[in-house]
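ok trying this again, last paste got cut off
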Amino acid sequence: MKDPNCYHCGLPNDDEHTYSTQILGEQRFLCCPGCLAVSEAIVQNGLEDYYQFRTEPAIKSDDVVPAQLSKLTLFDEPALQEDFVVDEGNNKSIQLTVEGITCAACGWLIEKQLSKVTGIAQVSVNVQERRAMVAWADDQLKLSQILKALKRIGYKGAPFQPDDHEASYKREEKSFLKKLGLAGIMTMQVMMLMAGLYFDWFGAIEAETRDYFYWVALTLTTPVVLYSGSLFYIGAAKALLARTVNMDVPITLAVFGTYIAGLKSTLLQEGEVYFESICMFIFLLLLSRFLEHRSRHRAAQISANMTQYVPVSATKIDEHGNLVQCLAKQLQKDELTLIKPGETIPVDGVVLEGSSSVDESMLTGEFNPVLKETGSLVYGGTVSKDGSLTIKVTNTLKHALVNQIVRLQTTAMANKPKVAQIADEFSRIFVVAVLLISSATYLYWYLHGSENAFWITVSVLVATCPCALGLATPSALTCAMAKLNKHGILLKRADAIEQLTKINTIALDKTGTLTQGKFSIQALWVNSNHAEQAVLDIAACLESRSEHPIAKAFDTKSSDLVMQGFEVTPGGGVSGEIQGTRYQLGSKHFCFGEKPLPSLEFEANVFLVTDRELLGAFKVTDTLRKDAKDSLTQLKDYKLAMFSGDMQHNVDSVAKSLSINIAKGELSPEQKFAEVKALQEQGDSVLMMGDGINDAPVLASADVAIAVGNATDVAKTAADVILLGDKLSVVPFLLKSAQRAKATIRQNMAWAVGYNLVILPFAVSGMLSPWMAVVGMSLSSIIVVYNSTRLLRG
């Protein structure tokens, strides 16, 4: 017999045409060719378990699937991908908004299907936000093929748009408020009605009047149970279908158990009812979930909404010097743009002309403007206060710092620290324990003939529900990361907070980390066979392509020489061929190896050599950061070490002025790496701070790595934490914040577990009525959320 409704989407089948296929061993009927094609694709890929796991019908598929698939090839156009696809070297990645996700089984199906596609390196689906993060090898696969694979199983994928995501949050918030509002209104009515009966406010009333009040209370409670509480039943159903349990399971059992018992008592006109407890239970649970929902969104906004600061338009300077209005996203690398006083800088760049005080508070949290002049780096979203700037674009809008922050923050929140994983596992175990204890409680009281056995069991289920335990860790971590982000501290992974609390040794690079990175030539020696300006021009030409802060000591714009074969030796120096001669510029070890150093009148630290002779020697010096001493004083409880490639006497001088315990100079990147490894072998947990290419290996080896200030891209890649500003004073704040987050998690866990352990004997012994259990459990969850949000204010 033909089913009246489509097995795939649930809509009515076509009476005139029959579409059918074998699913789960039976003949199933579909409403259209689109649903038929999708269901056959699911079966052919071995994913028909989807139909067993799903809790909601799928979205109706397009009738003309081939025509829809052909349009997806447009997404392979580089111009269209420019705004959405991020090139990560070996792979490309994209965030997709996926339409048609209705339950957890959809996420399972999408991940299974895409993992079968050759070329996909990673896929992660967020069911709640209806988003998917996909990374793929572009030489093996095209974006349109990924979207086609989604389309064949009935889902429509499109590049994620922040505006759509915000709209999704608004819809979810609106749904929360509707359910919460209904529960709140009905709870007040039912509580007033039932309180009048319990406390005999109506005087001696007849049984018929009491039964009438019960029916009124039942009528008011039913929409609360069926609509407001649906959030918890769906969660419980998804958990059970996935063959696990979560905190929604005991909630569902308690709500329906109490409701059915009340319904039975009302119909039979005997026994107790606790309709007010059901309404209050659902209302307070929804309130705690809503508070968590709001706090998570507020925390995410601090980083994700940074994109609101970037202007849509920009003033471009074309090749003829004309000013042209254009979209900010159309600015390309090396193009010029003009920033007028009061305007927001559209993209990352370097200042070519002009000077201005720039407000960088949206990045660093510091409200004092920073002076930007020729050679200074500026970032999209910051505001030029009092001057005009001509900047050369260094990063397009997609790769601008504000967009990097959003991507890194999303990645960080996807990485669960160990304490969160333990808490999740403990919550599942605790739920099982609650269910077993509840069953044992009911059996005990039933065998002892207690007429309250059922209500005692309900009190146990409600009072010991581990909602607070489930909120303890994620709420604290989310708020802590948001607070750090607001102060210009970007965590690339959430578990770095946990590791920061274990640090006992802080290792620092000197140049650009403890010092300002503003170098100048204090003394100069030039070979008598060469002109001074010629030597300076060669040095400037070599440094013109270097990212090292020392390059700023040389006037790299003054040289018109052409260089070939440029090479960088991290921790050593640079080399290149100029007019047929190979030159090297760098440290003593890089230029001379084990050969003796020529006698000079001053202590040089940078040398210019050829294979035949020493051409020039320079004493290049830097100055300490203004806040270096105060910052390290605040870190006096830690063992402090400094590892630098600079001359030992310079390192000793800095170490003495800053009271650093261990100071070693003239180290190569490999030797820095070995020093940190040696500390770790002694049992130390090491935090490493650096900013240059030569710091990348040692940053990667440390327990926690921090890239300081204007660090190179290589250093940022190796780091776990990135400081967006150039102040060391945020490092003590970072470490204190990590300790506060750890303390908050412990407080939350102690409260959640302690409350359950204390309340359990009262509930099991029958001393706790259901309404008391409701109040206690809900207040426990609200206290945990409130305690976590204190991290945002501290």
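PB: full thing came through this time. The CA atoms of residues 214 and 410 lie 50 Å apart.
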